[in-house]
Write a structure and sequence with these properties.
The protein has 1286 residues and is an alpha/beta fold. Helix content is 39%, strand content 14%. Helix 26 runs antiparallel to helix 32 and helix 27 packs across helix 33.
Amino acid sequence: MASFVAPPAASTEDAANDTGEAIATFSGYVPTALPPCLIPALSGANAETALPLSQSNQSTSVLQPQDDASSAVVIDLLESSCDSFIIERDVGGDSAAAALDFKSLGIPSHTSPACESALLASVSAPRASNESCACLMPLARSRALSPLQLEGVSLAITRHNRLLYHSSSSSSEPASTAGAAANTIRAGFFMGDAAGIGKGRQIAAVLLDSLHRGRTRHLWVSVSRELQEDAKRDLRDLGCTVPVHDGVDALNLNSKKGLGAGGSIGKGILFITYSLLVSGQGKRMEEIIKWLSGASSTNQHKQQSTERAFSGVLVFDEAHKAKNLDADTFTAKLVIQLQERLAHARVLYCSATGVSDIKHMVYANRLGLWGAGSPLYPTFDTFQQTLSHRGMGSLELLALEMKQMGSFVARTLSWDGAEFETLEIPLNASQVSMYDAAVQWWFLVQREIKAALHFLGDMAPPKTLWRAYWSAHQRFFREMAICAKVSKVVQESLHHLEQGRAVVIGLQSTGEASTQTALEELATQILLDSNDTNAMARGRKVNYEEILLPSLVSTARSVMTGFVRNHFPVALPPMDVPKIPPIPPDGFPDEQSRLLHARLQDEAERIRAMPPPEPIEELVEKRQALMDATRQLNLPPNPLDDLIDRLGGENQVAELTGRSGRILRYKKGQDFHYVQRIQEKASNTFGLSIPKSNEDFDKLNITEKKKFMDGRKSVAIISDAASTGISLHAAKGSGAAHKRRVHFTIELPWAADKAIQQLGRTHRSGQLSAPIYKMVVTELGGERRFGAAVAKRMANLGALTKGDRRAATGSDLSEFDIDSSYGRRALARVYQCLLVGGDDQIPTTIPSRHGNAILEAFAQQSASSNPVIQAMKLDEEHRRGFALLRAKQALDAVGLSSKDTSGNKAEVKVFLNRIAGLPVLQQRLIFSLFMSTLDDVVSDAKSTGEFEGSVEDVKATNVELDGRPEYLAIDKRSGASTTLTRFNVDRGISLDTVATQSLDDAAPEAIKDDSPPTTVAESGYYLSKRTIAGRQLILYAKRKVESDTETGNNTHDPLGLMVITRPNTGKNPCEMSTRDLHLKYNLLLSSNEFSHTFEASKIELVHTDAKPSPYGPAVILRCKFTKVAALWDRAYDDSDCFNHNQGLAPRRSQLGLVTGAVLHILPALEKAVVLERPSVRALRVTRAEITSTGEMNVGIRFPLDKEIVEKLKSILMNLSNIRKGLANVSFQDEAFSPIDARSMAWATTEPKTMRSFFNTSASAPKISNTATPRPKFSSLKRKGTDSPDF
């Protein structure tokens, strides 16, 4: 993790609730890895004259040192002793020089402002080789690729020239060509750029480079067949005219254009989807490999040799689709096999949401992190075991290391201008009543099912019964939570539409299955009401489009009725069919065995032939009563249909979903009817513009998108089916470019990659305005079950794909991240405290330190809504007991009793799912207790050093280098060095700083808050009541406030927490309650009093003889409040040391960071601190900014104790001795293939057609809407030594 002077931050993210300093999350992007020869080309100079490519005939190592100082002696972990050597050169200097070179051009790095996480920007990628840009010069001059894209392409091309040795190879000399073919695999490259950066254009450039070098067959794997047109467009825009073969046609064995025998497809790019790859039980992959490698021999050895010789490009677009190898998915297996068999293929992984867990990286076996090229981690399992227990920090560490290896980039469009808001919607009285009534219905169903099972003889319920119950229970209340948001979303949407903006609403599901269920019920009822008793028997069907509906259909009600109809027990279960063993391959051993097998078969046939048990009339009536009860409930309609109807109907709303039909208002009347989204006839299209055909459904969403982008429709609603490949941003040149997008997320997706795909639809390159994002949640605690899963995923995704967990979207979702190890620990504590004793035994232990306030609030709300409870006039102790008992009973009601949770206490998902089925008030009680307990658990973990969060930022007044860094080792995989860097840290807060802060804090004191002023302490200076080492301690306490982004108002923390600052240790990350503050400290001076005195004293001081300049807050404080100033100054001065002094913790400390390549010595670091306290063993990824220079340093925090450092060096020495038998290098860089004139001409020349032959191209439609002229490649023609593989 080398360091260099990072570009200035483009934006910052404030610490939550003002308990910490602002943390730089993004940095404006500067491409520091561009090949030197591209700089003149970007400036418009003759690049070939300035730096001819012919001068670089030999291959250039990715990590070859670029300056003379690189010859300084360093420690090689493999062959050297543990003596210390001092670094003699500026780490990252070459990257800093490259940044200056690019900045001198005065051009932007991309067509839209781009940035990179500040954490990832703190390390640099190695500069790409000049030879990598052999075909990039025309693209640079014509601006077909932006500098940012040129950097990604050149890094990928350079990386693809590296061969990684298998760990079994023991040769210390470079292998011959034949040896390399047998013992190596080609390194891959991971392009983790976010949506909108232009990954497709970069993929096209990588393919074009290979085509120019004589490699004429390539594979492009993506998620959707529709994206093939985008691939063709990107290739055409770069001047590439090679055929892109549709995989569906190419893999059709009956087609004359197939890959198989008799097929006519030759060279070009084969475009397939992941679903097509896995079709045919793997037979498709065999056909693909044969076509790519040109293998025709039946000899297995020759076929394997031909496959290994293939060196074309394998593109895995949206590579996260292959992530679930641990779930034994066929897709992941085939992706791995494809890479293993084509060992020298140039693999390019592309995904904005690469992985969300270390275990999902298994498909990316070409990155050199394990196996070939990594002797320390011979298998993926060893790699995963080393990193997985380190939590989120390991993902960030991995991203940093991959970038330094030159195998990874992750840029994103700048979020500057984009706005993020969590819109929490309180439920009104009507919604609460509706919700609580539905809760009682589900309780009734639960009781009736148990009663029915008892009526049937206390039989064991079917295995699927309760599973189906809780599944339907979950879907129903999830739907209710979504429906509760519709009114507020419509209100906000109409407001933004009036302001001339365009609205995008994102959800995951459409409820089509439930809609179909409701329509089937209506159709059945219509047939029954028609008095045609034989209608059903004759198979008569009702056309759904002919049914006139008085209102929109409630899909929530369909979930209810569907469960009861299909799962409520109304009869005895049928007899179990005996399991019949298979007939032995060699026949039955004796006649008795044959007869027994025959009897079992006869018995099974007899049972199958038996009619099903007759339904019991009494239970059938109960089932019908439950279904009738749903009609008495006031349930909301399908949220998707409701949104379309309220926002202007189908003529105003573009629906981009995968459902086949919807319910619309009939001719502006009061009635509704079902309409298929694709009509049989061109007339009566209900807002759509295309008739039905075989390909219409694939094009339907594109058609709707075009209407939205043109401005003909102002609202777009997208589902999971349309979250990939569709752009809905304010694109320059589009009809609705002037309308800023407002993106509502009303249904959180199940996976973070889907969430980011949706957010990326409205934030892309070439936009005139950045979007406004609104994540809409209700106050229901149960709904956070969905937010919890996504928040965890999005934090992880930001960590790996951007090198910083906060960079996934630029918004911090940590408030919803409750499905974690700390969440499970908190839940176990809640269960332990509440689920005790018998049903009526009142719990006596409160799970949270701040639980009293929560219990009191619940008791008061219950009393206000229930006259019986109010009449009881309980004292404080009994009110809390009442609340605890209600919490216990509520958990038992949803199947979370002590018996049910005895073996499942840590399942946060189950807990959140179940409490969704509680009345709203009880949900609030239980969820508040859980969240408060979680706060306690996290706070305790932080205090002990156990907490494993994101990258830790060193927050101090001053951070400076302590001497020069020293080398520890060199990573044989890449040649990158590992260093130990020491820093001096001063965390003290001077009187000048705190005095200014106290004036700023005086203004928010006048906050309109429902709670009395006495419940929260005043902000100000406090003095301890007790003395420590003869000294009373002074501190500054500030009221913790929360800001409302909508109104701009501030509110006090409901628990009365205070943010503490001390002169010697600065701002404390842990707050102190008002109660503890008053118990231990006395107020010396309030911020309000100081503010009034300051304003009155400024004029007075001007006329005194003293001439302080300027008359700042500290001067006034020293003159008017000498005791406060003296105490603060004395504590600040006496703590100016590295050890405790006179009862004070020291201001100063030393910090050690292991920077550079770290993964290869991570086991040694862990072994060196294995006996230390938890905070030291954590080995956190830490970021420190040098105060004087602004230089950012990122590494693993390591103790500087002399004994521990010497222990580390000893371990490294032992590790070096162990590895002496291994190869000195883990890779070899190939020479770049020269440009092949024949291949280049074929790749860039339009094929002859009837139109072009007769010179009618002027009337031909344009193939690209880009304003950039197509690049000319004639200047690259040179004599090639190799002929293309025609």
